Amino acid sequence: MLLTRARITAVAVATAVLAVVVPGVAHAATPPPNDDFDQATAITALPFTTQQDTSGATKATDDPYWCQSNDVVGTVWFQYTAAEDGLLRATSAGSDRSMILSAFTGLRGDLRAVDNSCGTGTNATMTIRATAGTTYYFMVAGYDVPGGALSFAVNQIPPAANDNFANAEPITTLPQTRQPDLSTASYEADEPTSTGCYESRGLPSVWYSYSTAGPATSVTAKIDGTGSTVTVYSGNSLPELKQLACTSNFSQATVFRANPGATYYIRVTGPYVNYQPITLTLAEAPALNPQLNISPSYPTVYDNVSFSTSSWNSIDQPLTASWDFGDGTTAPATTASVSHHYTVDGVYPVTVHATSPDGRTSTQTTQLTVNTHDVGITKFDVPTSARDGQQKSITVHVANTRYPEQATVVLYKSGNPYWTEVGRLTLTVPARAKGAVSFPFAYTFTDDDALAGKVTFRAVVELPYPEQDARPADNEVIAIATTVNPKTVSRAS
Amino acid sequence: MTLSIRRLCLPVIGLVAAATVLLTPGVANAAPPSNDDFDSATAVTALPFTTTQDNTQSTKAADDPTSCYSWIAASVWYDYTPSADGVVLATVASTSNTPLIAAYTGTRGALTPVPGACTNFNTGTSSTFHVTAGTTYHIMLLFPYYGTQVTFGLQSVPPSPNDNFASATVAAFPSEQTGDLARASAEPGEATPSCDATADRSVWYRYTPDRTRSVSVERVAYYNSPAITVYQGASLGGLTEVDCAASMSAASAVFTATVGQTYYIRLAASVENAAWFDVRISTAPALAPGVSAFPEQPSVYDNITFTPYSGDSLGRQFVSGEVSFGDGTSAPINGSPIQHQYTKDGQYQVSVSGTTNDGRTGSGVKTLKVETHDVSLSDFTVPASARVDQTKSVKVSVANTRYDEDVKVELFRLSENGYYQSVGALTQRVVASPDHKVEFPFAYTYTAADATAGKVTFQVVASFGTWSETDDHPQDNVLNGVTTSVRAKS
């Protein structure tokens, strides 16, 4: 009994001492058993999955700085010695918060990061290539916190089914969209590079093939994903492939012509790790429908009319176009604009046959109206001389061979510094092969005119708005100056 | 009974004693750590060894060696004498101000640096070096600014598995290979690479291609890159060097690998540069050849300089090849400048083809437009003599056999100050014609100043009306003429 009492007392004292010595630690989270690298949880078989509370994880001074290091405040460790070559995928999906995953090989203090082994987020994922016999150390940290309710899983994952050229996924109908997972892809021996697009060397690739029974189809390929490229090839083996098209620009598709009976290979390359999915879109190219540009849009027989086609779609360019001007003349196919001169007014059906580089065609006809209104001053009668106070007549002769016009002639006299309007007159000028209509004016010379000694007259003929004279070169005349003399000396009354 | 109670009390006292040790907080020691001085280095007796120590009070000694870093604020020492040859890895970790590691053999005052053991800010927090049985290695942790709490570790590491030629790793194709050359050693009988005589710490890979292809061995990491040497052969003494890329450079090795032949790839560095390498062995990129022409818009008067390029992303230039000018003539690519002059306007397909020194070939085409715009002046008619106030006619003709042009002819008079002054200008369309010339008429009134000078020197200059076109042969666009006698009014 004495024994028992002493024992109870000893225990009581020990507890009391313990309570004094270890102050305030009772409510903090305990570091998990795999807090330190040397006590990494051994993964002995795959698939592996575990749930653990890592909120008490701490950070060691030699925790490697590699993946999202500024947000690592506590780490736990797992280790796995790969039994065979292949891809492993680790994930923290199912955890209660954002995590940071990374993987290393080698010796403590000299750890080497495994390529592409950095994953962060609420479903942090990393896919690594493992070699048989190598030990991989997985470091799991909370994002800006030591940890939380961690759900951690590691499993083998097969390579992408269409990783290799030989296993290209056949595409038989359009349109199609694919979101390949490049983290499970690799590059092969003898893969060609993409010329003219974002660098593809050393990047993982997946392959698709396309063929059509007929008819020949233009197919567009578009890729959406940072650093990704879609390249289209023809050929039967990797060393024989010939590049047909490529694009890395998500806003600009590329196009290739698929002839019946041939197989086309479509390759997607991009980074192993991408935070947004990569999306490949294959579709039939839209019908060719270029804009038809004619300038001027209301031509006359005096214009060299310019004809061209254009398109906003980059895959349509450069457009080749041949023209039928509708007046019996044509222009052969060219990528440049063409010009044509109509000799007679009329309404002409202008037809353009356009072809895109990939072979889509379109034919359009538009009605072009050639309408030429033209009057001209053929004669301008002004007096050679006059006297102050004298009235003289001035006549403007207007000719017109085309359509009856209501023409207005405006008569001006020279001023200082501007022309001053003297008069205006509107008359019908019929269309006549020969002859002209006379527009009569009169002018009485002034003492100011005599002071200057010379007056110049100017005549302009206009057509009523909205008509425009097609050839204004003959619509304005400035005459030789009229000499103006002072009054004769008046007789004394 | 008394005995029993005493025995029961002991565990309690022991517990209190242990707790007491924990209770005493880490008061800053006023004294430096025990291994502050070289002579009292901590002896590392067995590997792996690890210790965490507070070095805030550590000091430097006047004779601390500065071969690794010239400025030492504080240092601590560890000694290790291995019982067998091998490779060791020393590591340091600290929450702040991690020290550098240096290692020495010899005695105080006569220390020899261990080659390659010094870490610096580029090589990080670990040091790997070779050790010999029985030699004492003095490992110094040096703080450039101040001492901190540091975890120091020393462990044995296995040598590289493919250190020796005989144990070359069979390289998968394509593959990325990585390893630490600091764990590799020089092997007797190895040939010295032709491009890097110092790279002797080597590892080996072996590759037998299943088809003939161009192979490149490229560095993936940009720093501390190894020397890459490719050999053909079967034994260390019977190797023929195929290609060589120097260490610490951006160069890659490229070679044609013939089906069925075995190639050895040696990655090596000097002991000072030996570090982790990361190289990719894969199919070499295809060439994308082209050629540039200067001038880019030539005429038949230009002797055009052509510069071919291989378009190799690995930087190999053509060692042979040909540039065909598209007019039936060509020139070889042999290092000499390539120049050519065309005799007729036209669009020429200039093609280039060539081979790099590793055996890759490629070709390219460029369309070169040759277009010559040229007019010439002739029949500059200037009065031989005149009198003051006389107005006389001056004219010149323009010939053009090529393309219709709008030609501007300007008439100048040489003035007293030595400069040509414009007297008049006229622009006319001169159509291309084999024989027809267009006359440009001017007039000039002779002045008293002309009579004083006694003569008038005229010049006509022809040019095109627009900025975008210039005459490709301006030598025949200027003519001078002199009225040799100018006299006063009669």
How does this model look, in words?
The complex is a heterodimer of chains A (493) and B (490). Chain A is mainly β. Helix content of chain A is 5%, strand content 44%. Chain A folds into 4 domains: 37-157, Jelly Rolls (Sandwich); 165-284, Jelly Rolls, CATH 2.60.120; 291-370, Sandwich (Immunoglobulin-like), CATH 2.60.40.10; 376-485, Sandwich (Immunoglobulin-like). Chain A has helices at residues 2-21, 447-452; strands at 41-43, 48-53, 75-81, 86-91, 99-105, 112-121, 125-130, 135-142, 149-157, 169-171, 176-178, 205-210, 217-224, 229-234, 242-247, 254-258, 264-269, 279-284, 291-295, 305-310, 320-324, 330-334, 338-340, 346-355, 361-370, 376-381, 385-387, 391-399, 405-413, 420-429, 437-444, 454-455, 457-462, 476-478, 482-485. Chain A is elongated, with a radius of gyration of 45 Å. Chain B has 4 domains: 38-157, Sandwich (Jelly Rolls), CATH 2.60.120.380; 165-283, Sandwich (Jelly Rolls), CATH 2.60.120; 290-370, Immunoglobulin-like; 375-487, Immunoglobulin-like (Sandwich), CATH 2.60.40.730. In chain B, the strands form 9 sheets. A 5-stranded mixed β-sheet of chain B has the order 1-3-8-5-6, with no helix packed on it. Chain B has a 5-stranded mixed β-sheet with strand order 10-12-17-14-15, with no helix packed on it. A 4-stranded antiparallel β-sheet of chain B has the order 2-9-4-7, with no helix packed on it. In chain B, strand 29 and strand 30 (420-430) form a beta hairpin. The relative contact order of chain B is 0.08. Classes of the chains: A mainly beta (493), B mainly beta (490). Chain A binds chain B through residues 2-3, 6-7, 10, 13-14, 17-18, 20-22, 60-62, 107-110, 112, 115, 187-193, 195, 201-202, 239, and chain B through 1, 4-5, 8-9, 11-12, 15-16, 19-20, 22-23, 89, 91-95, 125-126, 128, 151, 153, 155, 157, 173-174, 176, 178, 180, 211, 213, 220, 276, 280, 282-283, 285-286, 288, 313.
